[in-house]
Amino acid sequence: MEKTGFGFWEYVRSILTIIVFFITFLIFTPIILFLLLVSFGKASNLVVERIAPLMVRPAFWMSGIRFNVKYHTDSLTSPAVFIINHSSTLDVLTLLALGLPKIRFVAKWEFQYNPIFLILGRLTGQIFIKRQKSDKAIETLKKTHRRIHRDELSIMMAPEGSRKHPGIIGPFKKGPFRMAMDLNYPIVPIYFEGNRQLSKGGTMITKSGELTAHIHDAIDTSDWSLENLEEHIIEVRNHYLEWGGVENDDVEPIA
Protein backbone atom coordinates (compact mmCIF):
# COMPACT_ATOMS: atom_id res chain seq x y z
CA MET A 1 0.00 0.00 0.00
CA GLU A 2 1.42 3.41 -1.02
CA LYS A 3 2.25 5.71 1.86
CA THR A 4 0.76 9.18 1.91
CA GLY A 5 2.42 12.18 3.50
CA PHE A 6 5.87 12.37 5.05
CA GLY A 7 6.90 11.32 8.51
CA PHE A 8 9.42 12.96 10.84
CA TRP A 9 12.27 10.62 9.96
CA GLU A 10 11.65 11.09 6.27
CA TYR A 11 12.16 14.82 6.72
CA VAL A 12 15.32 14.20 8.75
CA ARG A 13 16.72 11.75 6.20
CA SER A 14 15.84 14.10 3.34
CA ILE A 15 17.69 16.99 5.01
CA LEU A 16 20.72 14.73 5.50
CA THR A 17 20.44 13.70 1.84
CA ILE A 18 20.53 17.35 0.74
CA ILE A 19 23.61 17.95 2.91
CA VAL A 20 25.33 14.84 1.54
CA PHE A 21 24.55 15.83 -2.06
CA PHE A 22 25.98 19.32 -1.69
CA ILE A 23 29.09 18.08 0.11
CA THR A 24 29.61 15.52 -2.66
CA PHE A 25 29.02 18.26 -5.25
CA LEU A 26 31.60 20.52 -3.60
CA ILE A 27 34.16 17.70 -3.43
CA PHE A 28 33.76 16.78 -7.09
CA THR A 29 33.58 20.35 -8.44
CA PRO A 30 37.34 21.12 -8.29
CA ILE A 31 38.11 17.68 -9.75
CA ILE A 32 35.72 18.31 -12.65
CA LEU A 33 37.05 21.82 -13.23
CA PHE A 34 40.62 20.52 -13.29
CA LEU A 35 39.76 17.80 -15.82
CA LEU A 36 37.89 20.25 -18.05
CA LEU A 37 40.65 22.87 -17.94
CA VAL A 38 43.57 20.53 -18.61
CA SER A 39 41.64 18.81 -21.43
CA PHE A 40 40.39 22.12 -22.89
CA GLY A 41 36.82 20.90 -22.39
CA LYS A 42 37.34 17.52 -24.03
CA ALA A 43 36.61 15.70 -20.77
CA SER A 44 32.95 16.79 -20.91
CA ASN A 45 31.75 13.35 -21.98
CA LEU A 46 33.72 11.72 -19.16
CA VAL A 47 32.03 14.07 -16.69
CA VAL A 48 28.43 13.39 -17.82
CA GLU A 49 28.91 9.67 -18.47
CA ARG A 50 31.11 8.58 -15.55
CA ILE A 51 31.48 11.23 -12.87
CA ALA A 52 27.90 12.53 -12.68
CA PRO A 53 26.45 9.07 -11.86
CA LEU A 54 29.02 8.69 -9.09
CA MET A 55 28.03 12.05 -7.62
CA VAL A 56 24.40 11.06 -7.02
CA ARG A 57 25.04 7.63 -5.52
CA PRO A 58 25.63 8.93 -1.95
CA ALA A 59 22.38 10.94 -2.12
CA PHE A 60 20.41 7.88 -3.25
CA TRP A 61 21.99 5.79 -0.51
CA MET A 62 21.23 8.34 2.20
CA SER A 63 17.62 8.74 1.07
CA GLY A 64 17.03 4.99 0.86
CA ILE A 65 16.28 5.13 -2.87
CA ARG A 66 17.09 2.23 -5.18
CA PHE A 67 17.62 3.40 -8.75
CA ASN A 68 17.23 1.00 -11.66
CA VAL A 69 17.45 1.30 -15.43
CA LYS A 70 15.24 -1.01 -17.50
CA TYR A 71 15.70 -1.30 -21.24
CA HIS A 72 12.68 -2.04 -23.41
CA THR A 73 14.86 -2.02 -26.51
CA ASP A 74 17.61 -4.22 -27.91
CA SER A 75 20.10 -1.38 -28.21
CA LEU A 76 20.47 2.22 -27.11
CA THR A 77 20.17 4.56 -30.10
CA SER A 78 22.68 7.40 -30.13
CA PRO A 79 22.92 10.18 -31.07
CA ALA A 80 19.28 11.01 -30.41
CA VAL A 81 16.93 13.43 -28.70
CA PHE A 82 16.08 11.76 -25.38
CA ILE A 83 12.87 12.90 -23.71
CA ILE A 84 11.57 12.36 -20.18
CA ASN A 85 8.43 12.89 -18.11
CA HIS A 86 9.07 15.70 -15.61
CA SER A 87 7.17 15.85 -12.33
CA SER A 88 9.68 15.93 -9.48
CA THR A 89 12.90 17.49 -8.25
CA LEU A 90 14.19 13.91 -8.10
CA ASP A 91 14.31 14.02 -11.91
CA VAL A 92 17.56 15.99 -11.66
CA LEU A 93 19.23 13.14 -9.78
CA THR A 94 17.86 10.41 -12.02
CA LEU A 95 18.99 12.30 -15.13
CA LEU A 96 22.53 12.50 -13.78
CA ALA A 97 22.43 8.86 -12.66
CA LEU A 98 21.66 7.61 -16.20
CA GLY A 99 25.14 8.42 -17.55
CA LEU A 100 23.98 8.32 -21.17
CA PRO A 101 26.70 8.51 -23.84
CA LYS A 102 27.66 11.98 -25.10
CA ILE A 103 24.54 13.55 -23.63
CA ARG A 104 23.90 17.26 -23.14
CA PHE A 105 21.03 18.58 -21.05
CA VAL A 106 18.63 21.35 -22.00
CA ALA A 107 17.99 23.18 -18.72
CA LYS A 108 16.15 26.27 -17.62
CA TRP A 109 18.06 29.55 -17.78
CA GLU A 110 17.66 30.17 -14.04
CA PHE A 111 20.11 27.36 -13.18
CA GLN A 112 22.88 29.76 -14.19
CA TYR A 113 22.08 32.01 -11.24
CA ASN A 114 24.11 29.51 -9.22
CA PRO A 115 27.77 30.29 -10.11
CA ILE A 116 28.88 26.67 -9.79
CA PHE A 117 26.11 25.44 -12.10
CA LEU A 118 26.96 28.28 -14.47
CA ILE A 119 30.66 27.41 -14.68
CA LEU A 120 30.21 23.63 -14.86
CA GLY A 121 27.28 23.92 -17.25
CA ARG A 122 29.11 26.18 -19.67
CA LEU A 123 32.36 24.21 -19.53
CA THR A 124 30.56 20.91 -20.22
CA GLY A 125 28.45 22.38 -23.03
CA GLN A 126 25.01 22.18 -21.44
CA ILE A 127 22.22 24.23 -23.06
CA PHE A 128 20.31 26.84 -21.08
CA ILE A 129 17.04 28.22 -22.44
CA LYS A 130 14.42 30.75 -21.36
CA ARG A 131 11.37 28.49 -21.19
CA GLN A 132 8.87 31.33 -20.85
CA LYS A 133 9.99 32.78 -24.19
CA SER A 134 9.46 30.02 -26.75
CA ASP A 135 10.89 32.01 -29.68
CA LYS A 136 14.09 32.72 -27.75
CA ALA A 137 14.29 29.08 -26.66
CA ILE A 138 13.98 27.80 -30.23
CA GLU A 139 16.58 30.33 -31.39
CA THR A 140 19.00 29.15 -28.69
CA LEU A 141 18.46 25.52 -29.67
CA LYS A 142 19.05 26.27 -33.35
CA LYS A 143 22.39 27.91 -32.54
CA THR A 144 23.59 24.65 -31.01
CA HIS A 145 22.81 22.48 -34.07
CA ARG A 146 26.24 22.79 -35.66
CA ARG A 147 28.08 21.82 -32.47
CA ILE A 148 25.69 18.93 -31.79
CA HIS A 149 26.14 17.51 -35.30
CA ARG A 150 29.90 18.06 -35.31
CA ASP A 151 30.46 16.25 -32.01
CA GLU A 152 27.66 13.67 -32.56
CA LEU A 153 26.05 14.66 -29.28
CA SER A 154 22.69 13.56 -27.91
CA ILE A 155 20.23 15.95 -26.27
CA MET A 156 18.06 15.41 -23.19
CA MET A 157 14.83 17.42 -22.95
CA ALA A 158 11.54 17.42 -21.03
CA PRO A 159 8.61 18.03 -23.40
CA GLU A 160 6.44 19.22 -20.51
CA GLY A 161 8.92 22.04 -19.97
CA SER A 162 8.29 22.28 -16.24
CA ARG A 163 7.42 19.86 -13.45
CA LYS A 164 4.47 22.18 -12.62
CA HIS A 165 1.75 21.07 -14.99
CA PRO A 166 -1.83 19.76 -14.93
CA GLY A 167 -2.33 16.03 -14.79
CA ILE A 168 0.19 13.24 -14.37
CA ILE A 169 1.55 13.94 -17.85
CA GLY A 170 1.32 17.62 -18.77
CA PRO A 171 0.95 19.18 -22.23
CA PHE A 172 3.92 18.61 -24.53
CA LYS A 173 5.77 21.54 -26.04
CA LYS A 174 6.96 21.31 -29.64
CA GLY A 175 10.61 22.22 -28.97
CA PRO A 176 12.11 18.72 -28.49
CA PHE A 177 10.28 17.36 -31.51
CA ARG A 178 11.22 20.29 -33.75
CA MET A 179 14.82 19.83 -32.68
CA ALA A 180 14.72 16.11 -33.53
CA MET A 181 13.38 17.00 -36.98
CA ASP A 182 15.99 19.72 -37.55
CA LEU A 183 18.83 17.44 -36.46
CA ASN A 184 17.38 14.45 -38.29
CA TYR A 185 17.65 12.54 -35.01
CA PRO A 186 15.36 9.83 -33.66
CA ILE A 187 13.52 10.40 -30.38
CA VAL A 188 14.19 8.04 -27.48
CA PRO A 189 11.47 8.16 -24.79
CA ILE A 190 12.46 7.58 -21.18
CA TYR A 191 9.74 7.12 -18.59
CA PHE A 192 10.64 7.75 -14.94
CA GLU A 193 8.59 5.50 -12.69
CA GLY A 194 8.40 6.36 -8.99
CA ASN A 195 9.76 9.92 -9.03
CA ARG A 196 6.32 11.47 -8.65
CA GLN A 197 5.31 9.08 -5.89
CA LEU A 198 8.44 9.52 -3.76
CA SER A 199 8.93 13.28 -3.93
CA LYS A 200 6.73 16.25 -3.12
CA GLY A 201 7.85 17.83 -6.38
CA GLY A 202 9.35 21.21 -5.58
CA THR A 203 11.71 20.04 -2.84
CA MET A 204 14.17 17.24 -2.15
CA ILE A 205 11.92 15.88 0.61
CA THR A 206 11.51 12.24 -0.38
CA LYS A 207 10.38 8.86 0.78
CA SER A 208 12.55 5.78 0.50
CA GLY A 209 11.65 3.44 -2.31
CA GLU A 210 12.44 2.40 -5.85
CA LEU A 211 12.90 4.53 -8.96
CA THR A 212 13.10 3.03 -12.42
CA ALA A 213 14.10 4.67 -15.67
CA HIS A 214 12.37 2.83 -18.51
CA ILE A 215 14.23 3.36 -21.80
CA HIS A 216 12.05 2.58 -24.81
CA ASP A 217 12.59 1.99 -28.52
CA ALA A 218 13.74 4.92 -30.62
CA ILE A 219 11.08 6.69 -32.68
CA ASP A 220 12.05 7.46 -36.26
CA THR A 221 11.37 11.08 -37.23
CA SER A 222 12.59 10.94 -40.85
CA ASP A 223 9.06 11.20 -42.26
CA TRP A 224 7.88 13.91 -39.85
CA SER A 225 6.88 17.30 -41.21
CA LEU A 226 5.39 20.52 -39.89
CA GLU A 227 2.05 19.34 -41.27
CA ASN A 228 1.94 16.10 -39.26
CA LEU A 229 4.06 17.22 -36.27
CA GLU A 230 1.18 17.70 -33.82
CA GLU A 231 -0.21 14.29 -34.70
CA HIS A 232 3.12 12.66 -33.88
CA ILE A 233 3.49 14.64 -30.63
CA ILE A 234 0.07 13.44 -29.47
CA GLU A 235 1.04 9.87 -30.36
CA VAL A 236 4.25 10.09 -28.29
CA ARG A 237 2.41 11.67 -25.36
CA ASN A 238 -0.17 8.87 -25.48
CA HIS A 239 2.66 6.41 -24.86
CA TYR A 240 3.55 8.31 -21.68
CA LEU A 241 -0.08 8.28 -20.58
CA GLU A 242 -0.14 4.53 -21.08
CA TRP A 243 3.11 4.02 -19.15
CA GLY A 244 1.76 6.25 -16.36
CA GLY A 245 -1.45 4.25 -16.14
CA VAL A 246 -3.61 7.21 -17.11
CA GLU A 247 -6.96 6.10 -18.55
CA ASN A 248 -8.91 9.36 -18.72
CA ASP A 249 -6.88 12.47 -19.56
CA ASP A 250 -8.55 15.83 -20.06
CA VAL A 251 -5.34 17.87 -20.38
CA GLU A 252 -4.71 19.67 -23.66
CA PRO A 253 -2.02 17.50 -25.30
CA ILE A 254 0.07 20.32 -26.81
CA ALA A 255 1.04 23.57 -25.11
From TrEMBL:
GO biological process: phosphatidic acid biosynthetic process
UniProt GO molecular function: 1-acylglycerol-3-phosphate O-acyltransferase activity
Domain of life: Bacteria
Record-linked SMART domains: PlsC
Keywords: Acyltransferase, Membrane, Transferase, Transmembrane, Transmembrane helix
Pathway membership, UniProt: Lipid metabolism
Residue ranges occupied by any Phospholipid/glycerol acyltransferase domain in the UniProt entry: 80-195
Transmembrane parts of this sequence: 15-40
Protein name (database record): 1-acyl-sn-glycerol-3-phosphate acyltransferase
